[in-house]
């Protein structure tokens, strides 16, 4: 399977397992799971064909581990804008986590902190390199440090997804450390 096809199938899965399952007639269960055969049949019925082998390749090859397979079911690991309960237990974060963004968002972040926007949670990375890659999707990346140790002590709840992304409902500005301007 070539790289272009892998990306195309991955984007299709993200769209329909995270944001618009109803667009192709899917109904996710409360945990975000759907039967793989149901997904493939729905995609085919809506003009996007892929095989189980292609699906398995996309899941295995995705460096961010965006999808999880359990038995005969699949779901997105996190990043949903539709209502799901991933069933993740609260977790104690490391003292600092990181968030990748771009310059144009910094004024709003300084005043409002990090908000989930159209998702359920704010996504934080365990290392600067990952946060840099996340920010780079929107332009020249800016990496913010998040004092998650202080947030946790102050009662904020964290979860960690199966693929290592840290999730929290929001990050108030006082917990953010901004890089020095260039």
Explained architecture:
The chain has 182 residues and is of the alpha+beta class. The protein folds into two domains: 74 residues, Arc Repressor Mutant, subunit A; 81 residues, Alpha-Beta Barrel (ADP-ribosylation fold). Helices cover 32% and strands 18% of the residues. It is built from six helices and nine strands, in the order αβααβββαβαβαβββ. It is globular. The mean pLDDT is 94. Keywords: NAD, Transferase.
Total helices: the number is 6
CATH class of the largest domain: Alpha Beta
Unreliable stretches (pLDDT < 50, length at least 5) are none
Question: Main β-sheet, in a few words?
Answer: 3 strands, antiparallel
Strand elements, count: 9
Through-space gap between termini: 42 Å
List the helices and strands and how they pair.
Elements: H1 3-19, E1 34-35, H2 36-45, H3 52-61, E2 67-70, E3 73-76, E4 97-102, H4 106-112, E5 122-124, H5 128-136, E6 141-146, H6 148-153, E7 159-160, E8 166-168, E9 176-177
Antiparallel strand pairs: 1-3, 2-3, 4-6, 5-8, 6-9, 7-8
Features:
alpha+beta, Arc Repressor Mutant, subunit A, ADP-ribosylation fold, three-stranded antiparallel sheet, 6 helices, 9 strands, globular, tRNA 2'-phosphotransferase activity, transferase, RNA_2'-PTrans_KptA, EC 2.7.1.-
Compact overview of the structure:
By secondary structure, the chain is of the alpha+beta class. The protein folds into two domains: 3-76, Orthogonal Bundle (Arc Repressor Mutant, subunit A); 97-177, ADP-ribosylation fold, CATH 3.20.170.
């Amino acid at each position: 399977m070539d790289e272009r096809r892998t990306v195309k199938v991955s984007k299709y899965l993200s769209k329909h397992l995270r944001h618009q399952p109803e667009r192709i007639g899917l109904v996710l269960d409360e945990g975000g799971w759907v039967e793989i055969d149901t997904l493939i049949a729905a995609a085919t019925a809506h003009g996007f064909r892929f095989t189980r082998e292609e699906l398995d390749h996309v899941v295995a090859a995705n460096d961010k581990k965006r999808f999880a397979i359990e038995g005969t079911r699949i779901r997105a690991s996190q990043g949903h804008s539709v209502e799901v309960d991933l069933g993740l237990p609260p977790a104690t974060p490391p003292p600092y986590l990181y968030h990748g963004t771009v310059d144009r968002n910094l004024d709003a972040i300084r005043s409002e902190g990090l908000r989930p926007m159209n998702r359920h949670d704010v996504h934080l990375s365990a290392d600067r390199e990952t946060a840099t890659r996340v920010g780079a999707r929107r332009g020249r990346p800016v990496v913010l440090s998040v004092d998650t140790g202080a947030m946790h002590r102050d009662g904020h709840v964290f979860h960690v997804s199966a693929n290592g992304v840290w999730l929290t409902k929001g990050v108030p500005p006082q917990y953010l450390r901004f890089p020095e301007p260039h």
